Amino acid sequence: MTHPHINLKRLIPVVLLAILAIVIASATVGKDIYSGTAGNNLLSFAIVNLSGYLFFLVMPVELAFIYYLHVGVDIYLLNALAIGTAMCSQLIDYIIGRSFSTRIIDRLIGRRRYEKAEAEIRKYGNIAILLFNLLPLSSPVILLAAGMLKHPLKEAVFYSFLGLLLKYLLMTLIF
């Protein structure tokens, strides 16, 4: 019986990033937001937003953003923080997806499904990345998939940034 070779150089950083994110999120995420004592403290928002854009955590990032709009924080700083933390997390999602080996992908979804998904993301990838970031959809998952499919990083980052920028500007104008 053959065992697949595990690339520890790729696996260790991914596991460490995941553990660090889970520990930070579990210990601190949004406690002052949920208790109503956040005030103008943007640290809690940054932690919630950073955590909420990781593919393995689900957080109400849009609601936290709206909450902070109403407590009177600087809207430019809030938007910069929202986009910056989201981009950091999505870059982590992309790197985690990119680090999956072809063998792992084959086991998870199968070669034919992978090749079909790859063709779709090549055809609609940038528009999908933009729309998933613009709308309150699970954009971290699309970045994980883009990484798994080796979608060009520059394109993934650009369309993620554009979608996030538009989303947060629209939310600022509406709320």
Verbal overview:
The protein is an all-alpha fold. It has one domain (8-174). 78% of the residues lie in helices and 0% in strands. The chain contains nine helices and no strands. It has helices at residues 8-28, 31-35, 42-52, 61-70, 75-99, 102-109, 111-134, 139-148, 153-174. Helix 3 (42-52) runs antiparallel to helix 4 and helix 6 crosses helix 7. The radius of gyration is 17 Å and the shape is globular. The chain crosses the membrane at residues 12-30, 42-69, 75-96, 127-150, 156-174. Keywords: Membrane, Transmembrane, Transmembrane helix. This is VTT domain-containing protein.
Largest sheet: none
Mean pLDDT: 81
* Residues in helices, as a percent range: over 70%
Which structural class fits the helix and strand makeup? mainly alpha
Task: Report the total helices.
Answer: 9
Count of discrete domains: 1
Low-pLDDT windows of residues: none
The rough form would be described as globular
Task: Name the helix and strand elements from N-terminus to C-terminus, one letter apiece.
Answer: HHHHHHHHH
First and last CA, distance: 60 Å
Strand elements, count: 0
Radius of gyration: 17 Å
| Proportion of strand residues | under 5%
